[in-house]
Every structure is written in C-alpha cells, then in structure tokens.
Amino acid sequence: MRYIYQHIATILSSYDGSLPLTHFLKNYYKQYAKLGSRDRKLLSEMAYCWYRAERSIDNALSFEDRIHATLFLCAANHKVANLVLPEALKLNDTQTRQQKLNILNAFYKIPPKTKADAEYKHFLTGNSVFHFQNMWPHANGFSKGMDKYQWLQTMLSQPRMFIRIRRNKEAILSTLSQNEIPYQELENNCICIPNGSAIDKLLPEADYAVQDASSQKTGNYFRLQPKNNWWDCCSGAGGKSLLLCDKYPEIKLTVSDTRSTILYNLAQRFKLYNLPMPKQVQLDMSSKKDVADKMGSRKFNAIICDVPCTGSGTWARTPEQLYFFNPEKLKEISKLQKDIAMNAVSHLDAHGTLYYITCSVFKEENEDVVEYLLKYKHSLEVKEMHLINGSDTAADSMFIAVLQRRATASPSE
C-alpha cells in the first residue's frame, strides 16, 4: 500500500480548494490510469475524511497515523477503509461516534488538553475539529435553531441522498425494492436512499428529481394561488422553480440567472418534466442598473430569492469548502445578498411576498440580511422565519424568511 500513501500525500499537498474536490480527483485519476477502481475509491475516501477531520488530529502523529485517524472517524465505506486501517481500528457498522473517539484516544494515548476537550468529546486534542471553532465564540454567530457543536459534528459524515418523487410513486418504490435499494419515506414524496445508488439506470428521468430534504421543505412555505405571477430571481438550475411548478403548473413564472448555461440547463429540465416553459432573463441581480434595465416596471405577486451564499449548510457534502474557507469572505457575501434582496423587493407588487432563502447556517447571511431589509424597506414585515435544521435526518440545513408587503405601503417602498 506504499504507493497509495504516496498518491494521497501528492493529492493533499497539491489540492488548494480552488476546484471542487470531486473534480480535482477525477482529473488526478485521469493522469494515473493505472490506479484501479479500488485504489480510486480508497484515495477518495482518504481525501474526504482528511478534510472532514484532519484539524482535530494531533499534529505530533505521523502522516499515516493521521490518515488512519480521519478514516476511522469519518469513513463511509468501511470495506475500503479497512484495507489500510490497523487491526485495532478496523471499522464495523455498530460503532458509535463516541465509541470511535474513545478508541482513537486510547489507541494514540491522547489525553484532553483543555476543559473544552473534556466537555466536547468530538474534539480529539487541543486543536478544534475545524479551524474556526472560535470564530464565533458566542451562539449568535449561528442562526436560531443551530448549535455550533451540533453543526461541527455534522461535518464528520456525508449527508444522505434524497429524491423528490414527481409521479408514479408506487412504481418507483416497487423498483427500489426489487433492486434491493433500501429507502426511507420521510414525508410527502421525499425519499431517502443510500448515497451512490444508481437510480438513473432504474427510474424514468421524468418521474423524480434529486433534491435534498431541506430544500424540498422550503416548498412548504410557498403560498400558491392559481395564475399568480412568480419570479425566481436567482434560479440556478431551477430546483425551487420545478418544485413550485409541480404544485401549480398554471402559475406565470419568470426565472433569471447570471449564467446562460444554467438557464439552458433549467430549460432542459422543464422540457424533461413536461412543464410550461418559464420566461427567461439573463441578468446580474446584484446590479441595480441591470435589474432595472431588464425587468423594467414589472411587478410580481411572489419572488423566490434563493441568494448565493457560503453554502455552510451543505458543507458536510463538500468538507473541502469549510477546510479552505476564508472567514473574511462573509462580509463580502453578506453585502452581495443584501444588494440582491433589495433589488428583488423593488419588483414586489402590493401585498407581494418575498421568499428569502439560503443554504447557510450563519446569522450574518440569514437574520442579519432580513433585519437589513426591514430597516431599509419599511413596507415589509416578516410572516415566518426559520432555519431548516437537517442534522437529525442527515440532510443539508437551509434558512427561509417569508416577508410580505404591508397593505398600506406606498409605491416608493
């Protein structure tokens, strides 16, 4: 296995976070065609586990020991990880995280160095699991409904895979059962299945959408009326738009994004699902001038404002984003969100509703932006505001605020 450690050392020393880790690894494996399927799976498991927990491991340990410790703590594929783990650290499906921590600390003889280490057992040493354990020393750094240590622990494992069933539910569940793919039905048409399940080869494309459970829950807040005029102003590939139109295909929908390729992908998904094609506008929502030039005096009954964010509620899927995240970017991102939301509000009609959404757990991107809107757009009032905490279901976490124009608002507001 010496060559495996050489490869993982090269991967970890050359990766800088500028690309998604999955893309970097694919490019790396293309350069080394002799790496077999098992080798690639092992290297990928090593890399992801490293970025999940490396900062929690005592630096005094050797590189190989730190690889072993992160694998033992975080590996999802036990069979692959056990290829390199010492006998005392072999994984099984019955070990709890606390048991793993106890085994690791005993195996490497690492005593707690601080009171915090003793109190929060998921810290193996005086180092934190993540480099900004103390970036927000007070609870108000996180949105209401998320505990800092709960969030940190979610980073240690891969969230589950969720699909939203659009139609033919019984046939889909029957197909999953026949192919021995275990599933759990959470609510409505939200189904949880194991990561990596090859459902694209089994299920008709138009019958389901891959969508995180918390993302699906945002649809529960949409107040829909037939023939309402909606605008998904930061549509991306259209996850929220498709969710919306599946419920009410007769609504009038406009979508916008800065990227033409993304809008093209959105259109292809609408064609696949046989839904009415929305009006598309390519624009920069952060630019007041661009929005004014391209949207003119148009007003909407409802606007979905799913803004760009840190994605901190999804970092358990992409732990490298947390590992390489620069906290100084928060202010820049928060300003962008405020600009986008302010520009969106300008196109709400009387009694119109703004759905402000992020996939962040940070207050600076969530409640603070809502507070800013209320301060400068006095016509708005908060109807609902929640963090959708996905920790209990191994899903992502999201934030949604439902803001409505007051009936007495003047046109200038």
Structural overview:
A 7-stranded mixed beta sheet has the order 7-6-5-8-9-11-10, sandwiched between helices. Strands 2-3-1-4 form a 4-stranded antiparallel beta sheet, with no helix packed on it. It is globular, with a radius of gyration of 23 Å. The chain folds into 3 domains: 2-129, no CATH class; 160-211, no CATH class; 220-405, Rossmann fold (3-Layer(aba) Sandwich). The termini are far apart. It is of the alpha/beta class. The protein has helices spanning 2-14, 21-31, 37-53, 63-74, 78-81, 97-108, 115-119, 148-154, 169-178, 213-218, 239-247, 260-272, 288-295, 319-323, 329-345, 367-376; strands spanning 161-165, 184-187, 190-193, 208-210, 229-232, 252-257, 279-282, 300-306, 348-358, 380-388, 398-405. The protein is built from 16 helices and 11 strands. Residues 117-139 have low confidence and may be disordered.
Task: Estimate what percentage of residues fall within beta strands.
Answer: 15-25%
Q: Tell me the quaternary state.
A: single chain
Rg from alpha-carbon coordinates: 23 Å
- In spatial order, strands of the major sheet run 7-6-5-8-9-11-10
| Low-confidence runs of at least 5 consecutive residues | 117-139
| N- and C-termini, Cα separation | 66 Å
From the helix content, strand content and strand pairing, which structural class follows?
Answer: alpha/beta
Which percent bin holds the helix content? 25-40%
H/E element sequence? HHHHHHHHEHEEEHEHEHEHEHHEHEE
Major sheet characteristics: 7 strands, mixed
For the record, what is the CATH homologous superfamily label of the largest domain?
Answer: Vaccinia Virus protein VP39
Number of strands: 11
The overall average pLDDT, rounded, is 89
Number of domains: 3
Number of continuous helical runs: 16
Q: Class of the largest domain in CATH?
A: Alpha Beta
* CATH topological fold name of the largest domain: Rossmann fold
Please tell me the CATH architecture of the largest domain by its name. 3-Layer(aba) Sandwich
